[in-house]
Amino acid sequence: MESQKLRIKIGEHEFEAEGPAEQVAAQFEAWKELVASLPKDTNGSHAPRTPSGRLPKNVTEVQTPDGFAVPWDVFEVDEKRKLVTLKVLPTGEDREAVALLLLLFGHRKTFEQQEVLATRLIEAMQVSGFKQVRVDRTLAKFVNAGLVLNSGQRKGSKYRLTNTGYARAEEEARELFARIYISEE
């Protein structure tokens, strides 16, 4: 029987369990119900509860059978090609734009690349599982919102995250990570 270890911290509440997967999942469900049943703090010193099914943005790590997993585990890194791709695709209306935001974040986090060529982003999107994507049109909303900066023209276009774009991408990575690792139970 395979043993599973799970450790999560949400605000001031912590959960840690080790054992058979079914037992850990049952304990985690009981813990979630217990935390959800706690009275809300009226002075605002506690983190707000998330709606059911919605995962917290402050998940920092989850211990899996392979070791600790962190939000950056949503990326697959090809050191040889210096390419960052997504293991899991975002969902929703702007999923392609969010995927590009995450890829910019992944390149910055893993290779410390501030700017990424449009051709590199197209390749990363295709390897991740998206069909042909027009990076300029897809990221236009985030460029207009001030989350992404672009320079250059055509194939020479480069994109980089602003500070607010970096924070938004980190938040998206944490949400995607939480959706993967916490919903596996």
Brief characterization of the structure:
With 185 residues, the protein is of the alpha+beta class. The protein has helices spanning 21-37, 95-111, 118-128, 135-144, 163-183, and strands at 3-10, 13-20, 62-64, 67-69, 75-78, 83-86, 116-117, 148-151, 158-161.
Structure description:
By secondary structure, the protein is α+β, with helices and mostly antiparallel strands. It is 41% helix and 22% strand. The chain is built from five helices and nine strands; from the N terminus they run ββαββββαβααββα. The strands form four sheets. A three-stranded antiparallel β-sheet has the order 7-9-8. α2 packs across α4 and α2 packs across α5. The chain is elongated. About 10% of the residues have low confidence.
Protein topology:
Layout lengths: L2 E8 L2 E8 H17 L24 E3 L2 E3 L5 E4 L4 E4 L8 H17 L4 E2 H11 L6 H10 L3 E4 L6 E4 L1 H21 L2
Antiparallel strand pairs: 1-2, 3-4, 5-6, 7-9, 8-9
Helix pairs in contact: 2-4, 2-5
